[in-house]
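Page 42, continued from yesterday. The earlier attempt failed because a stray header line got pasted into the input along with the sequence. Redoing it now with the clean sequence only.
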Amino acid sequence: MTTQNTGNPAAAPVVLITGAGVRIGAAIATTLHGQGWRVVIHCRHSRAAADALASQLNAQRSDSAQVCVADLLDPAAPAALAARAHAAWGRLDALVNNASSYFKTPLATVSAAQFDDLLGSNLRAPLFLSQACAAFEELRAIINIVDVHARRPRAGYAPYLAAKAGLWTLTEALALELAPRVRVNAVAPGHMIWAVNSAMTAADKAAETARIPLGRLGGGNEIARAVAFLLSDDADYMTGAVLPVDGGLRLG
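This time it went through. Structure tokens are written below.
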């Protein structure tokens, strides 16, 4: 799906990116837009940031970004979001499942509501959004954002990591089920950006950074470039792959 230097904006492919108003999702939207994609920016709570990003991108290229608001924990939301994304320009070429809830859940205190939130955003929503988007004949690629810790768990995050491990397996299962028309791959980030409202002290952050062989956080652009690669013609023989972008964290 090469898009750079396209001479026909009306033929530019369309990608839906969930959780794209801020942070890594916004970096993915900005990077893909810069490569010629038209982007549907999904958000739940970050409407102001999503609108600002869409305005910025539309100023660079007219009618190339739209915002869709949806709560993906609503069982009806994935199908409705997919339909709205497709209706934006009458086509949908790719889906990036990036939206994710993330918070600590020690076993002694984890609740059913927390479990439903983490499994719903990290596994159920990507599954049913993939189902809805795969019904569009133009769709050629799905990218899931998993987590390098899904295969190297940490204490205190069991529901989140179980959901990401499920998404990892879902990537491989859908790669089989949707082949050869749709390629399904994933990116597994390590420590990229500190969590919002993190309670970590400076010493905590220094200790976590020291665990990364490359000695730094990755940032959103590292994930965005990996997603762009997996959507490109350079990756047209890759499906069911999970690409680690973690600075070597998984090796520790």
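Notes: The mean pLDDT is 94.
Reminder to self: strip header lines before submitting.
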